[in-house]
Specification:
Thrombin, subunit H, six-stranded antiparallel barrel, 8 helices, 17 strands, QueA, QueA_dom2, queuosine biosynthesis, QueA_dom1
Length: 342
């Protein structure tokens, strides 16, 4: 399938640089069957049914953005995927100035040694010393805001809270599961009162989620890998929801991708603890989810392809054109959409 079928023009001013406040005051475009509604996230309880279940990603974003030096050269590093207790796969800015074996000096006396380059355009990095890497990152790292925000303003103290969901528990992500940024304890209470349940799973989002699709055809795109887990008890509860007639609504594409990775052709969700490279494009038959709450995605991205697979490419192109015309805010700190296929 041609990648240019998923292209669209987005005015730069539609890119949100800060989240809505309060979080659930963000706008929400609802596509339910053939209908389209302009609402807000706090209207969510009225758009779902008693017995439905929202599925959240409880991954926690780590301060994975580092600025350092190799000699006189400035080097920027974004952690991408953990390879071991002290080893990470990373993307490097000014990578031509770094060779395998070089030591990079970061702030707060944090050092790491460069390893081999990889086929994704990054390299391996091993943190030196005996302190846990988590402590080193807390000292020297910053929240890894997406490039479309970081290129427009500096990361600051507010982002430590703004770029973390209320469900964040399992440290390991280098990008937030942004659909869940809209949720507040009050909204969760309202959903509970309406008989709408919720469950959590874990998918550690990698920086590869922001990589553009460079191929001309989707068949030639190599999807990045991310590690996820659904335990046996959670899988059993999710299966029970569907068996009772409830719908599973994934909150975010990360939750959806993990659910679909863990579900067999028979529609049964099974325990899962592994990497997934699932790449969902139009023509995919969904096995696990009945709907999706998600933010608005980049043109030509794997995530825009995913929502097009769920709702139809023409429907999503029209929905995005509507959102742009109506002033919706896009991307990680932007507004939400609720997608409920017929």
């Amino acid at each position: 399938m041609r990648v240019d079928l998923f292209d669209f023009e987005l005015p730069p001013e539609r890119i949100a640089l800060r989240p809505a406040s309060p979080r659930d005051a963000a706008r929400m475009l609802v596509l339910a069957g053939g209908e389209t509604h302009d609402l807000h996230v706090f209207d969510l309880p009225g758009q779902l049914r008693a017995g439905d279940c929202l599925v959240f990603n409880d991954t926690r974003v780590i301060p994975a953005q580092l600025e350092g030096r190799r000699g006189e050269a400035k080097v920027g590093v974004t952690l991408h995927k953990r390879l071991g207790p002290r080893d990470w796969q990373v993307f490097v800015r000014n990578a031509k100035r770094v060779r395998p074996g070089d030591v990079i000096d970061f702030a707060a006396d944090v050092q790491a040694q460069a390893g081999a380059r990889d086929e994704d355009g990054g390299m391996a990095l091993s943190f030196l010393g005996d302190e846990p890497v988590e402590l080193l990152l807390e000292r020297a790292g910053q929240m890894p805001l997406p490039p479309y925000i970081a290129s427009k303003r500096a990361t600051d103290a507010r982002d430590r809270d703004d770029y973390q969901t209320m469900f964040a528990r399992e440290a390991g992500a280098v990008a937030a599961p942004t659909a869940a940024l809209h949720f507040t304890p009050g909204l969760l209470d309202a959903l509970d009162a309406a008989g709408i349940g919720h469950e959590t799973l874990t998918l550690h989002v990698g920086a590869g989620t922001f990589l553009p699709v460079k191929a001309d055809d989707t068949d030639d795109h190599r999807m990045h890998a991310e590690w996820g887990r659904i335990d046996a008890a959670t899988a059993a509860r999710l299966n029970a929801v569907r068996a009772a007639g409830g719908r599973l609504i994934a909150v975010g594409t990360t939750s959806l991708r993990l659910l679909e990775s863990a579900t067999g052709e028979d529609g049964i969700i099974r325990p899962f603890a592994d990497e997934t490279r699932i790449f969902i494009t139009p023509g995919y038959r969904f096995r696990a989810v009945d709907g999706l709450m998600t933010n608005f995605h980049l043109p030509r991205s794997t995530l825009f392809m995913l929502v097009s697979a769920l709702m139809g490419a023409e429907r999503m192109r029209a929905a995005y054109a509507h959102a742009i015309a109506q002033g919706y805010r896009f991307y990680s700190y932007g507004d939400a959409s609720l997608l409920l296929p017929a």
